[in-house]
Amino acid sequence: MTAMTVNIIGAGLAGCEAAYQLLRRGAAVRLYEMRPAQLTPAHQGGGFAELVCSNSLRAAALTNAVGLLKEEMRRLDSLIMQAADATAVPAGGAVAVDRLQFSAYIERVLRAHPQLTVIEQEVTAIPDGLTIIAAGPLASPALSEVIANLCGEEHLFFHDAIAPIIDAASIDMNTAFFASRYGKGDGCDYLNCPMTERQYHDFYQQLVSAEVTPLHHFEQEKHFAGCMPIESMARYGENTIRFGPMKPVGLTLPSGGEAYAVVQLRKENQQGSAYNMVGFQTRLRQGEQRRVFRMIPGLEQAEFLRYGSMHRNTYINAPKLLDDLLRLQGHPELLFAGQISGVEGYVESAASGLMAGIFAAALMRGIEATLPPETTAHGALLRFLHTGSGNFQPSNINFGLFPPLPAAGKLKKKDKYAHYAQRALLDIARFREQLAASGLD
Questions:
Q1: Which domains does the chain have, with CATH numbers?
Q2: Where are the alpha helices (DSSP H) in 184-273?
Q3: φ, ψ for residue 127 (rounded to 5)?
Q4: What are the pLDDT digits (tens) for 396-417?
Q5: 314, 342, 385, 408: which has the fewest Cβ within 10 Å?
């Protein structure tokens, strides 16, 4: 019997995860990807699931909502989490990866499957049949126009910024020191560049007065809070970034005591030859990045392997347009997944792709799709997309999206989050049992 074919537009995290979930359930998959022939404003190559903004998948602990989401994904046999665990680099209490090896792992697994066909071309019309649009927030103008016409309204949008990457050999190790906040990890997860009060003041003055790349005339200066450029954040007040990405708490100087402010650098790859400036997303002009960021102690001779930049991200009004199975209203064979669907973040994008893959497999077989309980991180994320209202904005997973716990007000925050996680993992196990009973596991 010939396997039914499902189209997936986009080989980012969501598209790759959806493809993997469909392939392991017996579907044939046509995976469309326009890169490398046509690059986006942020991507540098044509690899599957290329990470752009950061190499971090954020917190690992189950008492953090994104840590819980990652653990649920592991228990649902996520390709993205297989790759993340196989290519991890030290990052204290976070999960970070060697982004090149991460991409290569995912592409190797998918391309090895005999029922995957990769079509390297831009999509300018939605193909016939069951289709998942996982084009990401940087869909080409032609595809964006197609989607806008389908949705019957203009895309919403925000701006996303990425941080610079620095050649490790250019960092002054006599000034920078290895340490993780509060001793988490093995002590070598982060390089720290400490500042005195005078150094911080001078740096701050240059940062807020530096020249930025202008926005296009049709764009507004509207950022998603999690990726706000460092210079935009700094304009809220001189201490804003010192209490944010440059906070010195939990770090002891090699000579003793605490710095006035600290810039942290996180390994970009497993060999430690490149470092990402943590929290330093920016739209400063490249020359200004060299001038201002080289004021940071330890980075006076910094060589930038990639400059920070800013790009426009698009997403649809999911509560108005999508049903609980991520299908476009009025188009039962068309599903959305990833950041274009209204989730924010690498992990959330991959998780939505995982769900879209499972839902598409059910639709392909003509059986009723099983929804994960709202008490799970996956269920809470889907509920957010389906039931949000008003001025819809993308969101990371957070415990505020979960149904409340009984008597939650009597629990301390950390204990409450532990109870959320315990409940979620029990319910995700039941969800997998339901998938198995319907032949979808």
A1: 5-155+316-437 (3.50.50.60), 162-310 (2.40.30.260)
A2: 197-209, 230-234
A3: -70, 160
A4: 888 888 888 876 556 777 788 8
A5: 408
